[in-house]
Amino acid sequence: MTNRSDTQRLVVLISGAGSTMRAVLEASVAEGYGARVVGVVSDRADAAGLDIAREASIPTAVVDLSDFPDRVAWDEALVRAIEVFEPDLVLCAGFMKLLGEPTLSAYGGRIVNTHPALLPSYPGAHGVRDALANGAKITGCTVMLVDKGVDTGPILSQSAVEVWDNDTEDSLHERIKVVERALVAQTVGRMAREGWTIVGRRVTIGSTEGTA
Fold first, then answer.
1. What is the mean pLDDT of residues 44-55?
2. Which of 22, 44, 115, 190 is catalytic?
3. d(CA 93, CA 52)
4. Could you tell me the pTM of the whole model?
5. 13, 80, 175, 182 - which has most CB atoms within 10 Å?
6. C-alpha of 62 from chain center
7. Angle, in degrees to the nearest 10, between helices 169-194 and 19-28
8. 208 band by pLDDT with thresholds 50, 70 and 90
9. Regarding the domain delimited by 8-205, which CATH topology (the fold level of the hierarchy) does it fall under?
10. For 140-165, b where at least 16 C-beta lie within 10 A, e where not — what string?
11. Known catalytic residue: 173?
């Protein structure tokens, strides 16, 4: 099981509006939540989520791919930006870049991401569209640990969302986002408070004592 202190240090990676980050910030105000956001890193200087972080007096950093000669240099700069905040956990909250080897090596097993489908079904950039196109009656969202693949990491938690007959991609995605934000905040808090164990592709949050 991972080591825990009273309060886990959380770094959030964003690319856009920061709505998931806001949900975590709001949840972390509660006594005993277990984690606090100590830094926010964006790959875009114009990401609206940076303003949310600044309003909350949280330090920020921007690591824009266009500022670097190649992807390797950007990957190395990203992990350096994260390391400044000495995190226990890293959360990808709408972060639109795949993480490279430097970040995965430094924080493997401690990077959390979310996806708007019930993995392993409908991975990739169009999870909501693909669920609709395939006639799914139930879809939802998944919170998982990040590995080298695309939406292939061990699953931490999932919530289901019913697909309505009149749903469009936008309407379904909006309902998923509401559930997704709450699930991310809940899952990160539980990880911070209870720790987690990884055995193969299975992740257990909390103690495994007494389980078969």
1. 97
2. 115
3. 13
4. 0.94
5. 13
6. 18
7. 40
8. low
9. Rossmann fold (3.40.50)
10. bbbbbbbbeeebebbbbbbbebebee
11. no
